[in-house]
Amino acid sequence: MNCAADPLPLVDIIQLKWLLAGVGIHIHVERLLNDPSYASHALAEAEACGSPAARAAASKLRSRLVSTR
Q1: CA 5 – CA 51 distance, rounded (Å)
Q2: Please, are residues 61 and 17 in contact by the beta-carbon 8 Å criterion?
Q3: What does the angle CA 44 – CA 49 – CA 59 come to, to the nearest 5 degrees?
Q4: In angstroms, how far is CA 25 from the centroid of its own chain?
Q5: CA–CA separation, 30 vs 39, rounded Å?
């Protein structure tokens, strides 16, 4: 993976992963980045969870994923 060309900062994705783990939702980072269907489902689940921080992080990532695909 060329980090310079990667439009999504890994720190944002890992932040979402840990925020979701705190509410019992587990995501697979590589699959989130490479499988649009999985990403859509995982982000929808995150946007519906009880954590305001996780919802905000998911919304931010969704807007960036949509703009890069």
Answers
A1: 31
A2: no
A3: 50
A4: 12
A5: 10
